[in-house]
């Protein structure tokens, strides 16, 4: 309840949170290459059943047999379409992230309210959106993805979600940084990539604090205040500081 109340009291952030927290469209991007329509439908059923069960019972509380029973498929069919439960979660995170940022670009970034803000405010709003989109996904799913990064020799899906320089988060953030530098709001003594690295370290630090506290997270207003302080101290153009 407190989370929703904060959104109501902060109208600038409210639209951002609404976009991050709204129900997802049916998952896209999980189609198998060269697969038949029937095979795609089976894969989708397994995927949807998996995510529903994970949300209801927790990742560790769901077996492959539970998933196949709910989806009306077989264990063999599950492993034909997915390597493991971990892969289902990673695909879910990647698809969800792409949908979140696509929605942000087409709704928030094209709005009149967004256009009225300066470049530093736009960057802050996007970082707030990204932080809360991750919260909306859920701590347990993110823990699974991080475990894949730590314990797999090479996990392409986890890399795409967390580190790929072409992922949507990086592309949007760098675009906002570039615009901010051109407008004189963001420091220019560092390159776009260097500023992005600083932002990424800060955002990752917030998420790591969330993980270490076992899901106890600071309020929306606290995160907003931290971002204000970070942007002013670290990224604001020296001419404005």
Give an overview in words.
- The chain has helices at 2-9, 11-21, 37-57, 64-71, 75-81, 85-108, 112-116, 119-137, 139-151, 156-162, 168-183, 192-212, 220-235.
- It folds into two domains: 2-23 and 85-235, Orthogonal Bundle (Tetracycline Repressor, domain 2); 31-82, Homeodomain-like (Arc Repressor Mutant, subunit A, Orthogonal Bundle).
- Helix 1 crosses helix 2 (11-21) and helix 11 (168-183) packs across helix 12 (192-212).
- By secondary structure, the chain is mainly alpha-helical.
- The longest helix is centred in the middle third of the chain and has 24 residues, at 85-108.
- Residues 1-29 have low confidence and may be disordered.
- It is 73% helix and 0% strand.
